[in-house]
């Protein structure tokens, strides 16, 4: 790795790390004021435990060896990984991927807001990373799904679809908040939501453009695609709100931006031209309606993780089957349908996401059931009413 490429990967890793505090503010602003610190801690806990877990064994299992389904223990504690032979390229890449590993379970926290025990969350996160995130990451990047030809540039399947469907499994075990949906409180602080959105958008340039693992033309295209898709999705969301509900809201703009960022993530390095705008418009429109499904379907996804991350990630991953442009990026992958590639790539995208969905849902459900039957996963009705900040952490966000 050249010094320029190394610098870009290191900067991108820092940008991805910054996304988790951004996510904490985004979720914290959407949450109820009595649970803000709990939401912040759930997110920050992920950047406490997951990097250590990634260093000890996670990376080795996620990327080690040549197996199709899981790695090995050859890189436990990053042994035999030096910096002299490749100018630090491998250790920088491991750090970069570790930031992805940290933010992925943090996405789930928004779904289980207001009612999950922190002690249960503390066990859930490392268990989920090892049993769900690590295998799916291996399948997509260097395992059987990637070898078959499915594409995921920066984590649409491995991160957003994976965490989004896990969020659905988690809330199905956890149950609805007391009084939901009849008494559904609005976001307590829209300024926090908008600040968090800005940090997420900023960090996402490292998330997507950094996934080129070098300061290359593909990184530049991923950067531009990230910019355009987020803007288009936010525009689509607020336009629908304006015509459907009569108001274009800040929450709609923020949700639309994040939906666009999620959707372009798997496609960022594989599409060009107007494709990111189309992907953003499609994702913003579909996710705007997807977040309304939960009240009818009866699952209490508190902060719309399923409607934005699962649906947005799935939309973005499937649109690769239409918009992938190998003429622009090289012939190492299949063409999308609109570039003469037929339905082959779309079929691989459907298979990859289907496999991730089944594994993530089943294993997440099993983890939650195991926790429910042992230490319990839900706070008492009294704590839920009074708030988790003081009961779980001995602090209050506002005095």
TrEMBL record:
Database matches in PROSITE patterns: AMMONIUM_TRANSP
Subcellular location: Membrane
Membrane topology classification: Multi-pass membrane protein
Entry keyword annotation includes Lyase: no
Transmembrane segment boundaries: 6-28, 40-62, 91-113, 120-141, 153-175, 187-207, 219-239, 251-269, 275-291, 303-324, 350-371
InterPro entries registered for this protein in UniProt: Ammonium/urea_transptr, Ammonium_transpt, Ammonium_transpt_CS, NH4_transpt_AmtB-like_dom, RhesusRHD
Keywords associated with the record: Ammonia transport, Membrane, Transmembrane, Transmembrane helix, Transport
Domain Ammonium transporter AmtB-like: 7-398
Keyword GTP-binding among record annotations: no
MF terms (GO), sorted A to Z: ammonium channel activity
UniProt xrefs under PANTHER family: AMMONIUM TRANSPORTER MEP2
Name of this protein: Unannotated protein
Originating organism: freshwater metagenome
């Amino acid at each position: 790795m050249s010094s320029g490429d190394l610098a870009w990967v290191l900067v991108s890793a820092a940008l991805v790390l910054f996304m988790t505090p951004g996510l904490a503010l985004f979720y914290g602003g959407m949450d109820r004021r009595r649970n803000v610190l709990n939401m912040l801690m759930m997110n920050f806990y992920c950047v406490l435990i997951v990097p250590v877990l990634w260093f000890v064994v996670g990376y080795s299992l996620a990327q080690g060896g040549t197996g199709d389904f899981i790695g090995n223990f050859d890189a436990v504690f990053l042994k035999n990984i030096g910096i002299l032979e490749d100018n630090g390229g491998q250790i920088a890449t491991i750090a970069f991927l570790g930031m992805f590993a940290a933010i992925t379970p943090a996405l789930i926290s928004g779904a289980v807001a207001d009612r999950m025990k922190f002690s249960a969350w503390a066990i859930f996160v490392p268990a989920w990373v090892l049993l769900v995130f690590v295998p799916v990451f291996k399948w997509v990047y260097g395992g059987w799904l990637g070898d078959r030809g499915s594409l995921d540039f920066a984590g649409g399947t491995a991160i957003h679809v994976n965490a989004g469907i896990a969020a659905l499994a988690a809330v199905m075990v956890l149950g609805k908040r007391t009084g939901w949906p009849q008494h559904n409180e609005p976001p307590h602080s829209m300024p926090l939501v908008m600040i968090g959105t800005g940090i997420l958008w900023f960090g996402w340039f490292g998330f997507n453009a950094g996934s080129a693992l070098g300061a290359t033309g593909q990184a530049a295209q991923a950067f531009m695609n990230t910019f355009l898709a987020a803007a288009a999705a936010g525009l689509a969301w607020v336009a629908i709100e304006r015509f459907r509900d009569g108001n274009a809201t800040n929450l709609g703009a923020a949700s639309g931006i994040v939906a666009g960022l999620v959707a372009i993530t798997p496609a960022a390095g594989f599409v060009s031209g107007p494709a990111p705008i189309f992907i953003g418009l499609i994702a913003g429109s579909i996710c705007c309606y997807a977040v309304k499904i939960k009240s009818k379907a009866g699952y209490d996804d508190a902060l719309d993780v399923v409607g934005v991350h699962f649906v947005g990630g799935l939309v973005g991953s499937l649109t690769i089957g239409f918009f992938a442009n190998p003429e622009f990026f090289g012939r190492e992958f299949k063409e999308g349908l609109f570039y003469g590639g037929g339905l082959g790539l779309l079929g691989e995208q459907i298979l990859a996401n289907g496999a991730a969905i089944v594994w993530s849902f089943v294993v997440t459900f099993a983890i939650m059931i195991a926790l429910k039957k042992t230490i319990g996963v839900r706070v008492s009705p009294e704590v839920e009413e009074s708030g988790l900040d003081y009961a779980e952490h001995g602090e209050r966000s506002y005095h």
